[in-house]
TrEMBL record:
Keywords, sorted A to Z: Membrane, Transmembrane, Transmembrane helix
Keyword set includes Transmembrane helix: yes
Protein name: DUF4389 domain-containing protein
Regions that span the bilayer: 34-57, 124-145, 157-176
Source organism of this protein record: Nocardioides soli
Pfam entry (one): DUF4389
Domain of life of the organism encoding this protein: Bacteria
């Protein structure tokens, strides 16, 4: 057995100074981001269609299109981490597609030099079906893309899925104790990490099949096992 680095890495650093009450109004504070993300996700879909054609013809994902879609996933992850996808920080997310190295939530995807022309025809609708079934339980309300239902970019907090319940428990604990239970945080990060890996795979950004594994904790272990 050997291990290789998985091409997508999702990290989150839990803020030790979370305020007890701020989560009650984050739906309002994050509203400008939600409005921007609606348009960004529309563009994400258009870009993904263009990338599909390019990969089918050339076997390559155009770099500028790739960087844009990585930016959308990154922006979505920061907003989710701040709001009801994790409640992991009180630091307001920046309005940028670029990586912000000192922000507590980060996402990176390695650019693929080549992608399979054959896989591009089946991986986003057929090969990913088992993962869709699992993340449907985790997130509910649709196929998970960057912490939001693809159809309406609504936050996970509004969903009855497992992630929404865990974040609710964390919010109640934070309100009454001033502390975010570490075990819940680790599980929340693992669920988000799984969903984002599936999102990147379905968006044709990697040929590396997502592992069926909850990698818990704020720091992405970033490895997947291969048997020979």
């Amino acid at each position: 057995m050997s291990t290789t680095t998985y091409p997508l890495r999702v990290d989150g650093s839990l803020d030790p100074r979370l305020r007890r009450w701020l989560w009650l109004v984050k739906w309002l504070l994050a509203l400008p981001h939600y409005l921007v993300l609606v348009f960004l996700w529309i563009a994400f879909v258009v870009v993904s269609v263009a990338a599909f054609i390019a990969i089918l013809v050339t076997g390559r994902y155009p770099r500028r299109l790739f960087d844009f879609n990585v930016g959308v996933l990154r922006w979505s992850w920061r907003v989710d981490y701040y709001s009801y996808g994790a409640l992991g920080t009180d630091r307001y997310p920046p309005f940028t597609l670029a990586d912000v190295t000192d922000y507590p939530a980060r996402l990176e995807i390695d650019y693929p030099d080549h992608l399979s022309r054959g896989l591009v025809l089946v991986k986003w609708w057929l090969l990913a079906i088992p993962h869709y079934l699992i993340v449907g339980v985790f997130f509910s309300g649709g196929i998970y893309l960057g912490g939001q239902a693809a159809a309406d970019a609504s936050p996970a907090w509004w969903s009855p899925g497992l992630l929404g319940l865990l974040v609710l428990f964390a919010a109640v604990a934070l309100l009454f104790t001033g502390s975010y239970p570490r075990s819940i945080f680790d599980l929340v990060l693992g669920i988000n990490r799984w969903g984002l890996r599936v999102a990147a795979y379905a968006a044709l950004m990697t040929d590396e099949y997502p592992p069926f594994r909850l990698d818990l904790g704020g720091q992405d272990p970033g490895v997947t096992a291969h048997r020979h």
